[in-house]
Structure formats: C-alpha cells, structure tokens
Sequence to fold (230 residues):
Amino acid sequence: GAVVSQHPSRVICKSGTSVKIECRSLDFQATTMFWYRQFPKQSLMLMATSNEGSKATYEQGVEKDKFLINHASLTLSTLTVTSAHPEDSSFYICSASTSGAQETQYFGPGTRLLVL
Amino acid sequence: AQKVTQAQTEISVVEKEDVTLDCVYETRDTTYYLFWYKQPPSGELVFLIRRNSFDEQNEISGRYSWNFQKSTSSFNFTITASQVVDSAVYFCALRNFGNEKLTFGTGTRLTIIP
Fold:
C-alpha cells in the first residue's frame, strides 16, 4: 500500500515553455501533498504544501506564479512550471501524506526536468 | 525550530560488512516523529521506518535495525551484512506533532563495494 506515482518521469523542453507534472496517490486518499525540488547531491527542498480544494502554501523564496500547484482531488496534485528556464532544470519529487495516527509521507518516483 | 544532522556525507564499506548511519536531531517539541528514507540511484524515496518520540524501543527488520535514544537525540540506522543493493543515499527526517512538514537531514551516501 501507500503508492505514489508521478508523471512524466523525465521531460526535456525548450526555454519558455510550460511543463506540467502530475502526482497521484494510487491506493489511498491524501488530503495533503508536498512538492520538493532536489539538486544533484543535495537534500530535498520543500517548495510547497498542497491541500485538496485550497490554495497551496509556498515556502519562502518559491515563486507561486512560476510554480503553479493545483490539488484538484484527494488523489491528484499537479505542479506546472511556467515559462521554464534552464535554471529550473532539476529533480522534482512529490509526496502524499496519509492521515491519522500513523501519518507518513510517501514519495513519488520523481520527475527529472531539463530545460534547454 | 527543528534540525536534523547527518554528519556522515559519504560512507563506503565492503560487502557483508555492517554499517551504521548516524542521525542526530534537535527539536523543542516533546512529541515528534522520526523517519528514515532510502533514495537509490533511480531517485525515488523509499520509506523505511517511522518512530514516535514516546516509543524508544529499538526496531529490527531483517538486516536493518534502528537505535533510538532520546537522551542523546539520536536515531541511528544499522545495516548488517551489507549488500550491493543497499547502495543509496539515506535520509533521516523529523516531523513535530501538529506540523505536517518534514525536516530532512542532508543525507548519507552509502556505497557497498562488491
């Protein structure tokens, strides 16, 4: 149980285009999903917390107009990188949180974004 | 504020050796949760264990064991009889009660040499 999928796993795009990444909890409902960014050989950096049906909460320094997050249902959150630039190239990972006493974040397989 | 320190940046051991990954945490809360995740080269973070602050019992799962000591604010992870498939980056993380966010350590890159 507690499987999280992410799509696409890898994307290459031209500078100026927008890229959408989907995160789905496959076998549980997640009221909260998280989006992280990870640079090579570094730890995960939380970008935003996404709650179903409400606006995402962004971490300090993360541009909300640049990284659009939509949490449309209890099993789906999307991250759209708008007008992507080479400096947006990174590994993006989502997680979905189970609820209750055993609350735990389960992570998706990640999306590697390369902006040319 | 909370903080997780993984002082070992990289560790290499020969296959079948035992290895311990250190994790030291800081928090002002009395109720909190500790986690270990494994990140193999594929990139996905794999959940390994969750430990509540009020449960100091050590846990063993196959070749994996965890030593939680509140007195030293440590939550160390030991792999016995290491295997090449254990090669990965391992992250320790902390979550305070009532706070949904995880605080991650910087990770320890473990390489098992065949």
In short: The mean pLDDT of chain B is 95. Chain B touches chain A through 20 residues (CB under 8 Å). Chain B has no helices and twelve strands.
